Amino acid sequence: MAAHFLAVDGGGSGSRFLLVAADGTHRIERGAANVFSDFDGSVAVLTDGLSALEATSGVSLIRVPACLALAGAIDEATCARVAAALLLSRVVVEEDWRAALDGALDGADGTLAGIGTGSFLARRQGAEAWAIGGHGAVLGDEASGAWIGRQLLSRTLHAAEGLVPGSPLADATLAEFGGIPGIVAFARTATAEAFAALAPRVAAAGGDPLGHAILTDGAAYLHRAAAALGWQPGEPFCLSGGLAGTYAPRLAAPLAEARVAPKGGALDGALARARRLAETGA
């Protein structure tokens, strides 16, 4: 059986590398990696992280069983391109939600909502696992940090134009960006990460009606998405990601009653997958 295992969790907020070796564990962190939106940049991040991991551990990774759980690895062709671009001969590349689901539930049945810069919901039942969402800031990622930031600016524009009632949060946002032209100019080139950077002010706004409406709508999406996945009352439901604490108190029964703490993260799930690769060869 292999003595070394490699796990990588690459996403919009950064990439984490873990090597389990005979002398212990070695960890490296690098920048964002989304192999769909920026394939070349992501491969550069991955290559740099793997090289640094080899340097710090003294272990050649080329034959080490590895699982790379990556944002943007949305189809077999993309996964194959990533595998071909890296000097790893025993590697599984998969979309990050799979590792996140297995890490959160330790392989057991249940549903996970991952809510950070982007978002997804995934469910496992027996040997089958499936997910919805995660389609990026332009078309989806509802309830995510990027979605919250985009909603803040959009609803601030609506308030400024009299389409919805104003609020202190809307007034402060409008002033900070220099009015409607400033918001439009910011949004023209803003990345998902830039939109997501606005989310903490919404979460911290307390009883502000505009902020409350955004987060209420985000929580409602989580309920709809869990139902669409087939989640059943009493089945474990996990929240993970940077906004998990924001949405936890906004869940309603029976979803709130089924909420359990994640047992681990995507890196744990990727490590378990690398171990299975070593044991079964697939």
From TrEMBL:
Residues 8-246 form the ATPase BadF/BadG/BcrA/BcrD type domain. Keywords: Kinase, Transferase. GO terms for molecular function: kinase activity. It comes from the Bacteria. The keyword Kinase applies. CDD domains: ASKHA_NBD_GspK-like. InterPro entries: ATPase_BadF, ATPase_NBD, Euk-type_GlcNAc_Kinase. This is Glucosamine kinase.
